[in-house]
Amino acid sequence: MTMPARLESHLTKHHVAYGRVFHPPIHGAQKTASVMHYPGKEVAKTIALRAGHKTLLAVLPASHHINLERLAAVVGGKVHMLAKRKCAELFPDCEAGAVPPFGELYGLPVFMDQALVENPEIVVCAGTLSEGIRMGNVEFMHLVKPRVGDFAEKS
């Protein structure tokens, strides 16, 4: 599978300069970062969650894990992981386990961990288990408009 057409079109429409990073199909952001030869702090993983009746995306470094209590403080309510079945419904054009961080394409708010903000570039999931998108972090933040908070901890 390749990057969903709507994601590619979205990046093109907004004149985002990006590179495609291909790798063997892998589950797990830290393993993916290792295979791509990027530090885990530069590769972002995206986690779909629920807060009450709202779905949201949390974006954090591959080398970190999410602290749900700290994210709840940022979001303003208790959060829990989204069921795999619900992820498949929300991201029908993506492979299972490959949630892209572009919430604006899916009508979802995005929360980005502070640890990613300082990176000049970021590598994110392209909606497949075998492709990433490398782009400037400023461009990513301009496009996605995430709410930034401190909710990730080093693994």
Name the CATH architecture: Alpha-Beta Complex
Q: How much helicity do the residues have?
A: 25-40%
**Overall body shape:** globular
Proportion of residues in β-strands = 25-35%
Kindly state the number of beta strands. Answer: 10
User: What is the terminal separation in angstroms?
Assistant: 30 Å
How large is the radius of gyration?
14 Å
Main beta sheet: strand number and arrangement?
A: 5 strands, mixed
- The CATH class: Alpha Beta
CATH topology: YbaK protein
Pattern of helices and strands: HEHEEEHEHEHEEHEE
CATH superfamily: YbaK/aminoacyl-tRNA synthetase-associated domain
Can you give a write-up of this model?
With 155 residues, the protein is an alpha+beta fold. It has one domain (5-154): YbaK protein (Alpha-Beta Complex). It is 28% helix and 31% strand. It contains six helices and ten strands; from the N terminus they run H-E-H-E-E-E-H-E-H-E-H-E-E-H-E-E. The protein has helices at 5-13, 29-36, 68-75, 84-90, 114-117, 137-144; strands at residues 18-22, 44-51, 54-61, 64-66, 79-81, 110-113, 121-125, 131-136, 147-149, 152-154. The strands form three sheets. Strands 5-2-3-6-9 form a five-stranded mixed beta sheet. The mean pLDDT is 93.
